Amino acid sequence: MIYWVSTILIGVILSLSAASYIFHGPTIQGIRELGFPDFFRIELAVLKILAVLILLLPSMPIQIKEWAYAGTALFFLTAIVAHIAHKDSIWIFLLNIAFVVMLGVSRYFLHRNI
User: Fold this and answer.
1) Count of Cβ atoms closer than 10 Å to residue 18 Cβ
2) Would you call 80 helix, strand, or coil by DSSP?
3) Model confidence, pTM
4) Pairwise CA distance, residues 20 & 14, whole Å
5) DSSP state of 106
6) Taking a C-beta distance cutoff of 8 angstroms, is the pair 81, 54 a contact?
């Protein structure tokens, strides 16, 4: 149960983030202000959607899920560094730390369920 709740929450977070990267003007502008080019924004949105599919489909091989966890962790850690460098609110930092913890919970319970 803990695995599915944490994994679904990560899926929702990644899906909303990917959608905002494509459709939400202030998010698009914020990514530009962080210094990232538009092609990278689109690339991240596509990779987030792929990660959601990989993490939520039970039939995916465990090795592919591990790559999705690693990529998602890298995204969250990169977001933390970018927001610190941009001197954004401490709340954005704490939110990303919470996402990393939730991702860790999902991965931990994935291996407990095998």
Assistant:
1) 21
2) helix
3) 0.88
4) 10
5) H
6) no
Distance CA(107)–CA(21), nearest Å, equals: 25
- Tens of pLDDT along the chain (114 residues) come to 999 999 999 999 999 999 999 999 999 998 898 888 999 999 999 999 999 999 999 999 999 999 999 999 999 999 899 889 888 899 999 999 999 999 999 999 998 876
Question: Scanning the structure block, which residue is given the tokens 């599915």?
Answer: 4
Say how far apart CA 37 and CA 70 lie, in whole Å. 23
Task: List % helix, strand, coil for the chain (3-state, nearest 5).
Answer: 85, 0, 15
Using CA atoms of 97, 102, 103, 104 in order, give the dihedral in degrees to the nearest 10.
Answer: 90
If 0-12 CB within 10 Å is exposed, 13-18 middle and 19+ buried, where does residue 75 land? buried
